[in-house]
Write a structure and sequence with these properties.
By secondary structure, the protein is of the alpha+beta class. The protein is built from 3 helices and 7 strands. The protein has a single domain, classed as Nuclear Transport Factor 2, Chain: A. Strands 1, 2, 3, 4, 5, 6 and 7 form a 7-stranded mixed sheet that branches. The chain is globular. The C terminus is likely disordered.
Length: 143
Amino acid sequence: MSATAIAQTYLDAVSGIVMANDWQAYVDHMSWPFLMVTHDRTMTFDAPEDICAIFTGFRDLLKSQRVTDYIRLVESAEQIDQDLITARYVTHLMSGSVRIIEPVRSVITLRHEDARWRAASIINALSNSRWPLLLPRRGEDLL
């Protein structure tokens, strides 16, 4: 399987896991420590409990914005070695046909460990260093 196919398969699986609110499956797809970099902040998470509030906050955001589709599409990917892949992708958050935010570009590093691909780091092109994202309520736009 190509680096692009591996990355897309991973992103599709984890997007589905997030939408299903499956905490255990989510942390099973992470490598520890996990690094998250935004426009002006770098966060290191040493264990699942360190990222729980972020997962919960992001799930609350998806629910409050009535997100129906959490789509992440790989633009490019490279296999660095047999156990590392880096991929650039674009995130789309949709509520039906309404775009919740403008597309967000990100880079993910996947590490092959324990016979599966796990996220070791994510870089998000967000100028808002607050994570999870704080968005205005869309109210009538989503009705």
